[in-house]
Design goal:
It is built from three helices and no strands. By secondary structure, it is mostly helical. It has a domain of 65 residues. α2 runs antiparallel to α3.
Length: 94
């Protein structure tokens, strides 16, 4: 369902609240994942092999890479979903 029209243009007004939240989640996943991956990866690389927390740093680096990729995937998913819903609502013949 379209949300409250603010501009009168359905392209900009269609589910504007969802788009705002989805973009914030996407940016958060990408930023946090990149930061975690870089910081934990650097700590893992420069830590001595006998350091007791080295395995945790490796897991954290992999988790950061996963979150970064999840942010990119989430971006593709929510944009494709919103486009399909918009085309069903406002597509040709509607």
């Amino acid at each position: 369902m379209p949300e409250k029209n603010e501009t009168g243009n359905p392209v900009f007004d269609y589910r504007a609240g969802f788009r705002s939240v989805a973009a914030t989640v996407q940016n958060g996943l990408i930023f946090f994942g990149a930061a975690l991956g870089v910081i934990a990866g650097a700590l893992y690389v420069f830590a001595s092999p006998q350091h007791p927390q080295r395995p945790v740093m490796g897991v954290a680096a992999v988790l950061g890479i996963f979150l970064f990729c999840a942010g990119i995937g989430w971006g593709f998913y929510w944009r494709r979903r919103i486009r399909a819903e918009f085309r069903e609502t406002y597509g040709p013949g509607k």
